[in-house]
Structures
1.
Amino acid sequence: MRLISSIGEWLDERLQLASTIRETAEHVIPRKTSSWFYVFGSAAFAVFILQIVTGILLALIYVPSAGEAWNSLQTLNHSVALGWYIRALHGWGSDFMVAIVLIHMIQVFLFGAYKYPRELTWIVGVFLLLVTLGMAFSGQVLRFDQDAYWGLGIGASIASRVPVFGPLTVNLLLGGPIIAGATLSRFFALHVFVIPGLLIAFVGVHLLMVVKLGINEWPMPGRLVRKATYIKEYHELTKQDGMPFVPDAIWKDLFFSALILFSLALCAYHFGPFGPSGPPDPTIIQTSPRPDFFFLWLYAILSYLPASMETPALLIGPVVGILALLLLPFFAGEGEKSWRRRPLAVLTVLLVAVALATFTHLAQHTPWSPVMDAWSGIPIPNQFLKNRTALERQGALVFQEKQCHNCHSLAEQGGKRGPALDAVAVRLTQDQLIRQVIQGGGNMPAYGKNLSPAETTALVAFLQSLHPAGQSPAHDASRTIALGAENRGAASPSP
Amino acid sequence: MTSLSRRALLMNLGIFFNSLVAVVLAFPVVRYLLSPVSRGRKDGYESWVPLGNLDQFPSGETRLATYRNPVVNAWDGDTADIACWVRNVDGKNYQVFAINCAHLGCPVRWFPQSSLFMCPCHGGAYYQDGSRASGPPERGLFQYHYKIDAGRLLIQAGEMPTPGQASNIVKGIQPCA
């Protein structure tokens, strides 16, 4: 014990750091700030440290070469002792980090911590969010599998929409004309050197400001922030009712970080590493690329944007979003901090959260994608074939053969791209069905060139049989008058 | 006082020398970083690549073909093998479509039964002639220029087609209503 303290004294005589560290650790914080709401920043930091450690461990084996990266991931998963677990920790660490950074941001927003004098802390925090997302995306690229390959294709396609500089941007992004070795190498450099460098620098400035400016006090409804008086009020608060961060408050941060790291370790153990999915061979086209969890919402938005909105939304949307976050403390730098008196702030958080959750949920089910094997893999349910005429059953065959099932569901099975057809006969008359099949429209391809008259007749007969029992199919009243009552019966077979 | 301003002058000179070196060194650094752009713009990335003999592409059918990208590094692995769709229109005329969806570049699949190309990502669909059928794409599939030489089908390829690219080889088709 005496040896340790004498070594410590020897070191500090030369380093001269002990007093600075002690001052920093023991800086006074308002007593009420020692709260379970103020633990997310330190938890994000803990996960970041874990990411650095596991990232270095992975780099011992990983080969950043387009020809070998995928094989080296297989080696990590299957041949290196616990290589799969280190990959799982790093992958889950990424998801945990994005999640905690987002929660931290919401807490800071709702508690008004971005207001004077902590505007710059917030702005650096926004950059930290961006570089964290940059790490998540570039890390997904380093898992050089099919998802990574086609994800890069999507990135390049978005970049190409930049006016004038689009093609140049694509070449710079990919490091050449196609997604290949140079692409992986530059994303490796980004993920391992450039972005972590920025991240460490931003974290340093962020923490420095937290210590120098003091942590945000617990917001009290009615206690307004005024630039003229805030600093004085804060110092009075810490003087009257303050306590040192170490050891009085830090135990909550430590407990929560441990809980997060433990959950992360458990998730990694239980769910294992992410992928890799199939090898990055672009001639294997039987693939449905999916982005990682935290980019699913974007995937959904890209599917729903109308074509005319796409380029403006892709290029202007992110700029507006980031600017709004950066400018927030300049428009709301003073005034009420408590979320109890800021309904607009609460509603904004709820709206964004619900929107992102909805898009993420949709992207997990991808109703916009045709089910590529529905025509051959999902049979038409029995109830749509029972007691049908030969013509109608022939139409059911056409329905499968022409892959209508890929986009249209029957009894909840099949594609969700187009409307479900369980009761289509109630919605459309015979003429309307024929027109829709032949001419398409409303986002449906036209099949006129691809269906013989006999096939069209059979298909429409089948579609006309799709109506609930006891509900008669739609019919054109004018037809009944023009052609006589018997024609109406022919157009709508009995249920 | 004079000695102090002399030192200040020396410091400014020192900053100037370092700035000079920084500017000089910036040229090779920027030139190096822009290499993917400058190389492609000078010589072009595209060249004629063979897809195979014509008998691989029967009349009236659409078949998958693959080629090795003409611009390639030894460590590119499988990524330099690119797929495309070859449509033999009538035995004389051909259409060669890029595999990349004109929306965001995912690989489109050909369904001969319904004569449609479908994209697995965001649900774009195209007719057999490559024109847009439905979904988010703003235009039809990208097409390569092709030529027939000694019984072989060749296309002008080398660069990944993207929606915003004014590449000289990848021509667009007018989108169908």
2.
Amino acid sequence: MILVLVENEGGAPSEVSLETLAFARSLSETGGGIAIRAVVVGDVADRDALAAELGRHGVTEVRHATGDAFDAYGGASWAAAVQAARADTSSVVVTAAGTPRGNEVLAHLAARLDVPMAANVVSFSGLSPFTVTRQVVGGSALEEMSLATRPALFTVAGHSWAAAPGDGPPAAWQDFSPEVAEADLVARVHSTGVKEADESGSLKSASIVVGAGRGAGGPGGFAGVDELADLLGGVVGVSRVVTSLGWRPHHEQVGQTGSRISPDLYIPCGISGAIQHWAGCASSKVILAINTDAEAPMMTRATYAVVGDMHEVVPAVNAEIRGRRS
Amino acid sequence: MRVLVCVKRVPDVAGEVMLTADEQSVDARHVGYTVSNHESSAVELAIRIADATGGSVTLLTVGPGDSVEQLRSMLGLGCHAATLVEADPVALGPADVAREIAAVVEDHAANDAGYDLVLLGNDAADSGDFQVGIRLAYALGWPVVNGVSVVETADGRAITRGDGPDGEETFSVPLPAVVTVLEGGVEPRYPSLKGRMAAKKIEIETRQPATEPQGSARVRLVVPPPQPSNVEILGEGEAAAGAVVDLLERLKVLR
């Protein structure tokens, strides 16, 4: 069995969890049709909808951990649930999306079972020995790693696989209430603040992002990109130098230590494209770069580019958009 | 409050990654070394806690002898002590590193110099294993909170704040505890001249690994071949505005 920890948002599985299921199906097919089970922890708004959706993505059975222990999120308590589901299904592989929670819960599980865990896997190359390739150095290098121990634990890097719904029947559903030790309940979410509309959540899911980097020149250099984002119904994302200089808040940062984005269109302005930044924007579908240096990494990796100062190009683009609208 | 911060010497890679001939590590001869941004934030948070509670900050690294360079520069920020467990990083997996840190924490505690709080970065900039802090917590039998931007202490507890999927999450756990930090909650300070001078006088404790490493299961590192540039240049300067908006229309992103 392959056991996949599925994170659900309201009643629907998160997109990265569906990508992880695509990875799991490929692994299942290579192994001759190993069954895929999903484990879901805590509140589920619409069980039938979730069972149907997971069925379409290759899951035959869902184990749903219920009980007071899961009222609030905790890495250890969730890992206890996944550990119980793994034992019950005799799964030889346990995987989750390479999200903060996916990585955290699988690291807990790895510590509890004393087995290795590979974070941010992008592919596998053999079943015996089971060898995976994962992102290191912010995605600019890859590590081939042998995962010989069972269960093999790994997370799947976001956007490295595309979700692939099929026509499978709804997954069977089974509730269970695992025993959770007192020690596993100590570190749980104590309270959750209200998310402001303009914080990083919208950046991660935005379909259009307008980026700005050192080329903005100072805290007053963002009027053009702010307007462009507004005109396109997108959001602004910035490079690390911009936040570390205090020009813009950290929640707008795109990169290895900021948000990872995957918009349909990314327009980086005055961003050279260092590894730190590229790690956060490499999954953009189309990149339109604006930079004075035609040889900057962002410019050579982009789909489209304009050579020029963002302070000249962006206002001219904004004026052109306004002109065509009137 | 006695705080331990674990840091790691990592290649200061910004551009193309080069590998050593044995494909086991990143070749940093031409780029130099640093510590992860997350760890710089962890050190800043630790110094603030020590200042607020009249406590101290000890640094710990598990790595090559040259890691003294990173320890010295962080001592200059106002940390009080440092320990180096001298080991070849290629031979160590994340479980080994966690075991070595736990051995130091337990040994210092046995010598009346235990810690109330251990901070680490959420993930190392090079190996990106996302697990050392959690494995450490299990080795010590302490609670762990992961990926937070801010940590403070009050009434024998660590109170943390950080981004969750539904908004800012607060955790409150009893000390001693392990907390892993993401950058962004605080602005790391710069070393002062006085701090740098004082740091030179601090003797760094050097130790040998306490256990035989099990290794990282690494087969090899590879650098993906550079993608050939297929960029289409739309034009130069303001004159390109028309071509840009034509493109935006083709992509159907103009509302």
